[in-house]
Amino acid sequence: MRAVTVSRFGGPEAIEITEVPVPRPGVGQVRVKVGAAALNPVDAAIRSGVFGGEGERLGLGWDVAGTIAAVGAGADWEVGVRVIGLATGHREPLGTHADYVVLDADSVAPAPDSLGDVYAATLPLNTLSAVQALEILALRPGQNLLVTGAAGAVGGHAVELAHRQGLEITAMASPGDQPFLLSRGTDHFLSRGANPADASFDGVLDAAGLGHRAIAAVRDGGSYVGLWPGQEPESERGIRVGALDVQANGAQLTELSRLADQGELVARVARTYPLEDAAAAHARLAEGRLRGRLVLVP
Q1: From 121's CA, which of 16, 66, 87, 108 has a CA 20 to 30 Å away?
Q2: For the whole model, what pTM was predicted?
Q3: pLDDT tens per residue, range 157-167
């Protein structure tokens, strides 16, 4: 089968399409025939060597939507069921950007009936990141939250989920994104480039990675969470500082899939690429200014 891998670090030119054996599910695992797999910034980071692994062949891809093709012993799934799932790991030999992928059975969830694989594939990493970041913040209904990078995939889902939690949300993004964010539950809008420290928030979900600019907007004793471990600012003024280390969680993903089916979470796709054009997809990702995910289709 085909898989997107890198054996040297660099830009999109480092992407290789390699032939590898079809993986076999072990105990408590399932093999998924990939219908679609989203491309995320973490894939570009792995490709460029951010997480190390010099001299290894590394597989790319964390998100997947597809169909159960084989079931290992002890895995409570049936062949033919449509699922979505998350494969975490920065230095794995095989990711979801492939024809097949093996996942732990407790890391997958039923796919939303209302979404095809292309749109469903955008959900796992980004919705789990949003819900787990909100758990770290641990805000109470009625408290106010600033989401930077709110028009991105994680930020947009964070707005939707925070609205459901009864938080008062200020979204920070480009002016053209204001109508979308207001439609998803934003209470207030702050244009990108403004100084967020002009206000005071109980918590900040810093999806844009503003760091010190974002923590300056947190009230004394509030909370801050960033999306890239090791890049968060140091604590100050009694602020709880955390960084997300997203975990595959089939139970959470099942609930998030249900919310997507109900229209509570909107899956956004910017463009699809055939699996063999993965390098072109990486080049487009590097250009930025995307509203929605790029998705690879085997």
Answers
A1: 16
A2: 0.97
A3: 999 999 999 99
